[in-house]
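Fill-in record for Protein-methionine-sulfoxide reductase catalytic subunit MsrP.
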Amino acid sequence: MSSRKPGHEPPPSEITPEAVWLSRREWMARAGLAAAAAGLPAWAARRAFAQDAPSLAGRPSPQFSVMDKQTSFKDVSSYNNYYEFGVDKSDPAEYAGKLQTRPWSVVVEGEVRRPQTFDIDALLKLAPMEDRVYRLRCVEGWSMVIPWVGYPLSALLKQVEPTGNAKYVEFTTVVQRENMPGVRYPVLEWPYVEGLRLDEAMHPLALLVFGVYGKVLPNQNGAPLRLAVPWKYGFKSAKSLVRIRLVERQPTSSWMQAAANEYGFYANVNPDVPHPRWSQATERRIGEDGLFTPKRKTLMFNGYADQVASLYQGMDLKANY
Ligand SMILES: Nc1nc2c(c(=O)[nH]1)N[C@H]1C(S)=C(S)[C@@H](COP(=O)(O)O)O[C@H]1N2
Ligand SMILES: [Mo]
């Protein structure tokens, strides 16, 4: 480890997950000590120290990044939807400190030639990390601009060799009953399940995310790994993944299960197709919400139409909402 010439930073791809994990433990210990010293509750310390999370660098990916002003780390990590921790925007930041993100593995199975269980440390090494700035548009009418760190989901799916029968991908996220106060309530059916068509999942924009702002993901953002599917409403970007199943038939997501007339399988951002309770024509960009700040016009496919519109050629996007 110490044989490097001074002045030579290791390239991001050479930063080992072991190093990430060690510094993470160190960070937790520091957070704990500081909490005790300051007489703070543990969650307050975790929040205060969130900015000191271990770094997770990626190479910049301008081709897959937007130029919009980025939402602050504070807003990205304190205004969240992660219903397993509660339905208020502040609940995930307050309660997700309890989520156990190690040990962690992800089962990839179903219509594949080589089903495998991947340890999180293997996943961190599977493909080169990239820095990508994506828009995130929540169906509730707000949006953010977030610098994720991750690599294309396709890199993982190729490892297991999908069979000709694989048409869809089903994503299942973690349930830790003791650590997730929200799963006591039947807001959704737990675990949280989402799905993509296989060609959507293989699209280069579909990102498997491990970090944000050059750091390991805060738990409230879906540690240790989550999806970012930027042309779809935020709920498609499932957090804290534990199972990925390649299937022949369209999966039923937790949101479809809860209200099929409100949440469809596709959930492509579309200003012309209103949700039954909310117009989707405009959005409030978090951090820009002054009293006189005009709302932004929501863009078709969240502004990613050039890259993804061809996936839906000939489809009725009102029927397939
Ligand atoms: N497991 C799980 N994943 C989830 C959710 C959730 O409640 N549980 N909420 C979704 C919704 S509605 C949105 S808008 C995004 C929010 O991601 P962020 O909090 O990192 O901005 O996460 C999505 N992924
Ligand atoms: Mo959302």
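KEY FINDING: Residues 81, 138-140, 234-235 surround molybdenum atom (ligand 2) (CB under 6 Å).
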